[in-house]
Amino acid sequence: MVNDATPSMITLEHVWLTLGDRLILKDVSLDVQPGETLVILGGSGSGKTTILRLILGLYRADRGSIRIEGQEISRLAERELFQIRQEMAMVFQNAALFDSLTVRENVGYRLWEHGRLLSDEQIEQTVEESLNFVGLEDTLEKMPAELSGGMRKRVGIARALASGAKVLLYDEPTAGLDPINTCMVSRLIRKLKTKGVTQVVVTHDLETAYHVADHIVMIIKGRVLFDGTPDEIKNSSDPAIREFLDPGSMPSEWRPQPKADEGVVRQQADLL
Amino acid sequence: MAFASFNIKARLIGYVLVVQEFTYLCAQTVAGLVRPPWYIRETVLQLDRIGVGSLFIVVLTGLFTGMVLALQGAVQLEPYGATIYVSSLISTSVVRELGPVLAALMIAGRVGTGIASEIASMQVTEQIDALRAEGTDPIQKLAATRLAACLLMIPILTIITNTIAILGGWLVARLYLAIDSYFYWTWAFEALHGHDLVLGLVKPVVFAFIIAMVGCYAGFYTSGGTVGVGLSTTRSMVSSSILILMSDFFITKLFMAYSW
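ok -> structure tokens follow
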């Protein structure tokens, strides 16, 4: 999968991670090519968000290799990681906007903080364009507390966009959003694909996954269970994958067997 | 028995870990004071919050401390006919001990808990991670700026507390004890020596370090959502108060060994 001529944008090889006394990731390997959109699917607590944090260097792997554009980052010091992070941006699950800053300051944060090459006017213009892209151009002077959940998430996306990062990481970008906002966020991710941005989307929303993915990785209990295209996962006959994709259609022998007491209660409930 | 010894061992390891984390944070923050980038705007904002914001409470603390010292001091000195020396008692006790300690305790309550709760809220809402993701060192941006502001403003606030306390004592001396202003101010200054002033300035610097770093530590090492924010705020107040009182004793002892 790794192309020698142009290095992969993100590569994880045999990564293991323990947090506290919990083994979170077990021998995880994945590869993201430049301009590709990878969706990481999996249930809650399966280790999806942890992978994003490892890519950003917010966590350190116990074992294995993590490379960004061919550069090994798992042994870098925090100050060296700041340079790597300049090329990446993350949309957090709850947006993680800075409470004390306005929407304008949040979106332009990285440019004002590190973008010494841009003038104030250029930064203002980038901020406005990014907010325009997510349809929130009229919220410039608002504080994060004045925004709804969906708006905060879109401002989070605008902040990632304004940074001009080559890699965008999304942690559950559609979680808790209404169908209209979900659709809007999915469209934004697809729009960014056309701009050649490499994207990693962590979600358990299948519709969003199929809509935006070039490539899907499925994680169950910290292990990679599937790595392939959206069509391949749809046609997979693996029981664990089928259970995740369509829990209602599971054959009865695959469903968890109820305990004796639960069976009685369920029968009574069925009668009612 | 085995369970009890395991529990004690686990606790001891926990304490060692806290000391290790705290020392690391202090070292990183102090390094952040001298190496770029310097967040001037954030530091000025903190100077205003910590300095101007705390002015009212330290003025009140100083005023009433000085007034009550004059009243109590006069009662103790009267049997010896030494009421006139009440200003010596006020100036030495305020400059050496009460001014720095009371101001620091009040500021720990207002500023230290503020630092802890603000950083803790940022921690539980992933804003600290967002800062790191944006390529900003949160220790440099949040801890170093607050430490710089505390180190600058708390000694100034302490000097203000001391001045107001001596003024408060003068008010009581004039209005209730009928002590002449000339004698009050003469004995107030006569009683103070160079080492008192040095002690009165060294203590607030140490206390400022404690308030800022304990607040930052409690904030950065918060977990457990909003409950965790509350716990961190409480921990910050309790720990900084205890550390202020303990360090006050040791600084005084150290100065006594070399100055008196």
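Chain B touches chain A at residues 121-122, 125-127, 129-137 (CB under 8 Å).
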